[in-house]
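4.2 Preliminary Data

To establish feasibility before requesting continued support, the project team ran the inverse folding procedure on a target of 751 residues. The structure was first converted into the token representation described in Section 3, and no sequence information of any kind was made available to the design step. The complete token record follows.
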């Protein structure tokens, strides 16, 4: 933007000042205004008085550093990021003084490149611009964050001084509290720095309550990761309006006569998928996968859609669910309840006797679920031989699909899932590893088949697709895996094409259970993280060339985008309902123009949810074990570092640290490639996957951290069970003796 034309000397009028501020491309403070109008001496004093009057009259806002017109934003301003929408940061002026009747303007920050480096709470100095579609900002530099929120528990020492104990296991020290804000000892609070220096301590800004109360553990994760959990009234109002839309039985395929069933966990909060199959008379099957027609209720561009995009997915905790959609939709109208007509997006499939899906078509239908069955109950009926024909036919179709799965040979890693069972009061009743049943595999294989069909159907129409992508392992990770396997005298040839079959064969050839666990962990670490994107790169883990998520639009925004693309690609738009919600249920022009941005945003939201869910389960496990400190558990080593071991309780999944200081009174050698700790004097070895009996020394429910020590007490020598590994000559030595510093050596040199 060009500089403003220099005004004539002399004390300017109010309008001249407003015009200068509006046209200046640099911050317009008192000094800049005085220089622009050539003011000196007494004129500067008069200008100061005039600017004060203009501020009191509501014409301008700001301070002597930079002014802007009231209700506007300075040309160069400090902004604070308050949201990230589709990967694009949204900010407000860091200082905003108009009264409550004038909310701060929201500016979209335009960063260079697709991946936003800015996150909620960040501060930037930016050039601002008001356009016909709203304010935008171009960042100049990132500024230090002044008020990062900190979550912790208030502790009061003997001198009466307050300390904030962290709830993040990575934080090791408490912070001094400068202002308790009315908080009492033992309360969970939010705080922020009280000053620029760490010595200033923190001040409490919000009291959250009892940290051990029901739902507190998930609340910690929600606040820590910035997960949106409260719906705006506008969003709820639109959801209630959408819930009144008629199912539209006349315009939909009527499948209410089919005995479609939903097979779900016994504690499922919603039911977004149901299945049916019957023999086709030629050795194959006709099948239906019915999915809640969320795109009919959640239209692009509305308040519901904006909120769903921001959340990206539902987040499931043991004590609550933070839904992507308001409950009137997620738990009611869009949930496939038994005996009630529901709008569905249906994938019809033809399955050959070989398990290959030979044909598919997509329709909008009305369904009426015959029964919602828990996995365990479906399995019991099949094993007892008293299952209805509809259930038996499902198992028959699945056995065909299983043949095709076996031919593909997808990556087969046994990954146990922890299950936290709470009673009505929110207290822990049981924590166990979730049993893997054939019933789970039945539903999983039907969902995979429908997901593949959705991707291929959209490709046939040359329509936009949000793929679920899992790329092959990188060469760097494969080289690391090769080096690790060499410590077992096992080879991984990197000259061949790497496929899941290669890893499956590697695992299958191991007979020793401890060694198998080691190799399985190593294979898992070598894999890339799955993500969403509009450019197909296949799904390595499932051995599929094209894969999209179609089956869970209640809880995943990616699936909703796939449904919308199907609506467009197969002309499935319903007759226009008389409603105030947006008209079309297909893809918006915004999404068609750039699916990359929203794909990146929902991929990031998924990673955020996974971390929050895992951390919350860790806290529940630690709470469950807090009354069992001192007990001895069967554990397996899951990590080896120079400072100690990480071990997991077998059958429970609680992860904890075994510090090197408790392993024995000798130096220990750390082989990073082999993931081994070995005693320099005794040769005792600790390696990933080995089983050990360990005593639980600490269990902190607030952080989810566990600490173990040898069964006989600290300093007791432990003999781990499992295959011994060869001693390496290079690595890191450090002391395991208690009470003295760990003398660290790198390849014989002290540092």
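Position-by-position output of the design step:
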């Amino acid at each position: 933007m060009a500089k403003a034309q220099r005004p004539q000397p002399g004390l300017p009028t109010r309008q001249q000042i407003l015009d200068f501020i509006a046209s200046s491309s640099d911050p317009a403070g008192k000094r800049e205004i005085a220089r622009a109008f050539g003011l000196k001496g007494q004129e500067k004093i008069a200008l100061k008085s005039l600017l004060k009057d203009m501020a009191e009259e509501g014409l301008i806002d700001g301070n002597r550093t930079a002014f802007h017109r009231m209700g506007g934003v300075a040309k160069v301003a400090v902004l604070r990021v308050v949201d990230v929408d589709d990967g694009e940061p949204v900010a407000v002026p860091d200082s905003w003084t108009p009264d409550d009747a004038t909310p701060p303007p929201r500016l979209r920050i335009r960063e260079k490149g697709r991946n936003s480096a800015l996150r909620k709470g960040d501060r930037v100095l930016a050039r601002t611009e008001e356009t016909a579609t709203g304010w935008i900002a171009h960042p100049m530099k990132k500024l230090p964050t002044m008020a990062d929120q900190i979550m912790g528990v208030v502790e009061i020492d003997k001198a009466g001084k307050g300390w904030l104990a962290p709830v993040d296991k990575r934080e090791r020290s408490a912070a001094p509290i400068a202002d308790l804000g009315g908080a009492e000892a033992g309360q969970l609070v939010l705080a922020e720095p009280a000053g620029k220096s760490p010595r200033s301590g923190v001040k409490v800004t919000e009291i959250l309550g009892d940290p051990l109360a029901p739902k507190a553990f998930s609340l910690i994760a929600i606040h820590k990761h910035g997960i949106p959990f409260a719906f705006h009234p506008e969003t709820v109002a639109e959801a209630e309006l959408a819930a009144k839309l008629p199912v539209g039985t006349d315009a939909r395929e009527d499948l209410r006569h089919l005995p479609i069933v939903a097979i779900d966990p016994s504690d499922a909060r919603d039911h977004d998928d149901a299945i049916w199959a019957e023999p086709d008379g030629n050795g194959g099957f006709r099948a239906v996968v019915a999915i809640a027609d969320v795109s009919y209720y959640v239209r692009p561009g509305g308040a519901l859609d904006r909120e769903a995009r921001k959340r990206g997915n539902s987040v499931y905790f043991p004590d609550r669910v933070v839904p992507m959609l308001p409950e009137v939709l997620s738990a009611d109208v869009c949930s496939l309840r038994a005996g009630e007509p529901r709008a569905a997006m249906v994938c019809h499939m033809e399955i050959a006797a070989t398990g290959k899906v030979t044909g598919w078509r997509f329709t909008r239908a009305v369904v009426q679920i015959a029964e919602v069955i828990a996995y365990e109950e479906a399995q019991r009926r099949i094993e007892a031989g008293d299952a209805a024909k509809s259930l038996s036919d499902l198992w028959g179709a699945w056995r065909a699909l299983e043949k095709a799965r076996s031919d593909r040979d997808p990556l087969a890693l046994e990954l146990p899932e922890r299950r936290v069972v709470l009673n009505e009061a929110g207290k822990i009743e049981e924590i166990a590893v979730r049993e893997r049943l054939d019933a789970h595999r039945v539903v999983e294989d039907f969902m995979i088949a429908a997901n593949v069909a959705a991707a291929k159907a959209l490709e046939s129409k040359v329509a936009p697709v949000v793929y679920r992508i899992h790329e092959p392992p990188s060469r760097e990770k494969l080289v690391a895996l090769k080096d690790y396997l060499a410590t077992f005298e096992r080879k991984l040839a990197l000259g061949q094409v790497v496929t899941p079959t290669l890893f499956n064969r590697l695992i299958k050839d191991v007979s020793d259970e401890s060694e198998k666990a080691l190799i399985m962990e190593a294979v898992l670490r070598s894999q890339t993280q799955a993500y969403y994107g509009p450019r197909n790169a296949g799904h390595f883990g499932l051995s599929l060339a094209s894969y999209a998520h179609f089956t869970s639009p209640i809880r995943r925004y990616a699936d909703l985008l796939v449904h919308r693309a199907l609506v467009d690609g197969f002309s499935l738009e319903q007759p226009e309902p008389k409603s105030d919600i947006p008209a079309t249920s297909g893809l918006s022009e915004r999404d068609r123009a750039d699916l990359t941005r929203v794909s990146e945003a929902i991929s990031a939201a998924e990673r955020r949810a996974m971390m929050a869910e895992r951390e919350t389960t860790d806290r529940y496990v630690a709470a469950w074990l807090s009354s069992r400190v001192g007990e001895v558990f069967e554990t397996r080593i899951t990590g080896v570092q120079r400072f100690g071991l990480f071990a997991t309780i077998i059958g429970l999944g609680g992860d904890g640290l075994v510090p090197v200081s408790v392993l024995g009174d000798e130096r220990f050698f750390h082989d990073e490639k082999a993931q081994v700790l070995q005693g320099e004097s005794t040769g005792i070895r600790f390696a990933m996957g080995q089983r050990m009996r360990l005593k639980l020394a600490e269990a902190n429910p607030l952080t989810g951290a566990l600490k173990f020590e040898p069964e006989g007490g600290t300093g007791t020598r432990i003999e781990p069970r499992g295959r011994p590994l060869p001693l390496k000559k290079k690595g890191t030595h450090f002391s395991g003796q208690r009470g003295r510093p760990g003398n660290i050596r790198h390849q014989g040199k002290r540092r």
